[in-house]
What we know:
- This protein is mainly α.
- The chain folds into two domains: 1-52; 53-83.
- 94% of the residues lie in helices and 0% in strands.
- It has two helices and no strands.
- The chain has helices spanning 3-51, 54-82.
- It is rod-shaped and about 110 Å long.
Amino acid sequence: xxxxxxxxxxxxxxxxxxxxxxxxxxxxxxxxxxxxxxxxxxxxxxxxxxxxxxxxxxxxxxxxxxxxxxxxxxxxxxxxxxx
Length: 83
């Protein structure tokens, strides 16, 4: 074999090794991301169950705020009528 062929083969082998190494690193990173996304998705899936009890409380607060707004608007109207 000629030296040019040997150098070319060594260069190609090194390039393949470098690409393979980087692909392995990318695969590992994607595996970590996938496992973290699994944790996040399971947490997000549990949210509706945890938030459901708050709906009744929020409805009561909203009702109270609506009543308070009506009273304040009435007071403002009385104040403007007196002026």
